[in-house]
């Protein structure tokens, strides 16, 4: 089965070079650049990649960049490895994933374990590394790195260009609705360099997740899919509902009403039994950022405002 690779990126520098070098021997490798100013285009060309320069007069989305790569795949390409430019494919992954798809013709997407390159660089990197550790076997969705059947992608129309986040799970919803399956192997797939070292970066990433939850639920929240309905509900309940309730109680009963906020440390304590104190704290704290993202989506939809990319790097 023929394999191509599509890498998307902007100003990834040395990370892009490592990404492309790990794909050595694979052809074609298509690099979709989104307005880099650091020499990424020249570096990709020097490594034999076909470069597609994304039209930056239109709002950028990773989904649009991936579709631009898909549009120039050679006829007859059967499989495509999708990659972000800050990721490095691990040795043996493509062979193992290709063999799995050859043996399971009803699976459209296969992914493996994505790991952070530097999990000890910050608490945020460690949290993200744990986030990548999803259950092995049949899955509901994949992330940005995955090996996919080109025919299946084409049949459902590829990615939704207008999504600023959550484009892979949304794609997987449509693939599953078309009768395909998604699978995660117990195999090392890619190493990822998040480079999140500041609380502000982590906050923006969580805010983007909240936006993705709300938009995903708006698109596919109806039964039986219920895509990201529970995640949106939790974000709004903990990130917005709790503070509003405490404020209303304080207005009604005075400062004693603020005791309602004690539900947050109690929730952290409850969750700590499952994943430790650090994970529990950031899981609860992150709901405030997720709620901001979800409410921002609802406001822009009501007001007709343009969606803006939420970048954290």
Can you give me a brief rundown of this structure?
The protein has 313 residues and is of the alpha/beta class. The protein is built from 10 helices and 9 strands.
Portion in strands: 15-25%
Tally of strands: 9
In this structure, how is the largest beta sheet organized?
A: 9 strands, mixed
Poorly predicted runs are: none
Helical content class: 40-55%
- CATH top level of the largest domain? Alpha Beta
- CATH homolog superfamily of the largest domain: Spore Coat Polysaccharide Biosynthesis Protein SpsA, Chain A
Termini separation (Å)?
36 Å
CATH third-tier fold name of the largest domain: Spore Coat Polysaccharide Biosynthesis Protein SpsA, Chain A
Q: If helices are DSSP runs of H or I spanning 4 or more residues, what is the number of helices?
A: 10
Q: How would you portray this structure in words?
A:
Helix content is 48%, strand content 17%. It is an alpha/beta fold. The chain folds into 2 domains: 3-197, Spore Coat Polysaccharide Biosynthesis Protein SpsA, Chain A (Alpha-Beta Complex); 217-303, no CATH class. Strands 1, 2, 3, 4, 5, 6, 7, 8 and 9 form a 9-stranded mixed β-sheet that branches. Strand 2, helix 2 and strand 3 form a beta-alpha-beta unit. It is globular and about 70 Å long. The two termini are 36 Å apart.
